[in-house]
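Pasting as-is:
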Amino acid sequence: MTARAISLWEPWATAMRLDLKRNETRGWSPPVSCVGDLLLICGAKTRVGFRGFDASLLQRIIAAKSAGWCFGMAAALVRLVAVEQTELYEPAKDGRDDELECRLGNYEPGRFVWMTVPVDLGFEPFPVRGRQQFFPVRLSNELEERVKAGTWRVEECR
């Protein structure tokens, strides 16, 4: 069984794994058929220090949680629930630290906010080679059992 996946750079992948960050910002919008559960893959390299982003903020938060990095791993299971243009995005008032969320993404005009919620906070990372755009990942037997039990939905992206 395969799942739809997408790659993120560190430290953003670990931030999403720890539920410190829920929004992914991209320069493109996914097809409507791709709204649903996603496997987030952490790239093997990091990309920091661009567009004025202070990655040290996020690195300090992650270190304070004594979390390890997920380079070259499936980092998290999330549900992509909505996508909005950055110009239309209004931070949710759900008790989360919206200022921190906004500092952890690139909300420049012309980009898209991919809003997610965590599916499985007990997810154990496993090795996966990341790729561009959406791509399929073969699930482990344990994850296949979770899909069969209904705790995680797998939807093919068209």
